[in-house]
């Protein structure tokens, strides 16, 4: 979807598919998208050490609580210049305008703020991949929201701490692999 979004932006063709759709079509696309993404997260989590040995109830609780965070984090690159270029399985773009209608302006604007902070952090693909397990395993006891960005008062400090931690651990692993 990212390549398609960039092609639209670079050619100036910003006609988002589905801008004339009705709310029922958008909801159908959203509902069709949920099981696809949930299966991806479950498959990924089952490959993480320890997750495949969790009791089913605990595994399901973690996935259910973190699924929205994972979705936002995974799709941050489709939020470009104030627009969402996500496409639903039925081909409709889940644009910012549709997000306003479906989830409201306040939540939509918070999502865009979060997505911009993640994009501005300039994580590499490898760093992003390593953040997925972290997002699944960070404790929730101090958080009444499902949003990763609300857990931290200062996302910049978190990102800096993560990058330092990542680079240190990656360096150690690289040395071990070379040896």
Account of the 3D structure:
This protein has 179 residues and is an all-alpha fold. It is built from eight helices and two strands; from the N terminus they run H-H-H-E-E-H-H-H-H-H. A two-stranded antiparallel ribbon has the order 1-2. Helix 4 packs across helix 5 (105-120). The longest helix is centred in the N-terminal third of the chain and has 24 residues, at 23-46. Mean pLDDT is 76; it is low at 142-155.
Write a compact overview of the structure shown.
This protein has 179 residues and is mainly α. It has helices at residues 2-11, 23-46, 56-74, 96-103, 105-120, 125-137, 148-151, 155-178; strands at 79-80, 83-84. 66% of the residues lie in helices and 2% in strands.
- Spans with pLDDT under 50 lasting ≥5 residues? 142-155
The gross shape turns out to be globular
Profile the largest sheet.
2 strands, antiparallel
What's the N-to-C terminus distance?
Answer: 39 Å
**Sequence of secondary-structure elements:** HHHEEHHHHH
Q: Could you tell me the radius of gyration in angstroms?
A: 18 Å
The percentage helix is: 55-70%
Average pLDDT confidence is 76
- Quaternary arrangement of the chains shown? single chain
* Helix run count: 8
Secondary structure: number of strands: 2
Structural class: mainly alpha
Strand content: under 5%
Strand sequence of the main sheet, in spatial order? 1-2
List the helices and strands and how they pair.
Layout: H1 2-11, H2 23-46, H3 56-74, E1 79-80, E2 83-84, H4 96-103, H5 105-120, H6 125-137, H7 148-151, H8 155-178
Antiparallel strand pairs: 1-2
Helix pairs in contact: 2-3, 3-6, 4-5
């Amino acid at each position: 979807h990212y390549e398609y979004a960039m092609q639209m932006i670079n050619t100036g063709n910003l006609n988002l598919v589905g801008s004339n759709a009705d709310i029922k079509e958008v909801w159908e696309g959203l509902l069709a998208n949920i099981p696809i993404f949930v299966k991806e997260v479950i498959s990924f989590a089952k490959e993480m050490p320890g997750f495949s040995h969790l009791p089913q109830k605990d595994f399901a609780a973690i996935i259910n609580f973190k699924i929205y965070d994972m979705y936002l984090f995974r799709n941050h690159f489709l939020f470009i210049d104030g627009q969402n270029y996500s496409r639903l399985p039925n081909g409709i773009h889940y644009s910012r305008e549709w997000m306003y209608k479906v989830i409201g302006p306040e939540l939509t604007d918070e999502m865009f703020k979060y997505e911009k902070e993640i994009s501005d952090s300039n994580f590499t693909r490898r760093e992003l991949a390593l953040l997925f397990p972290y997002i699944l395993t960070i404790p929730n006891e101090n958080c009444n929201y499902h949003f990763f960005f609300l857990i931290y008062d200062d996302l910049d400090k978190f990102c800096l701490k993560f990058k330092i931690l990542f680079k240190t651990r990656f360096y150690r692993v690289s040395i071990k692999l070379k040896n």
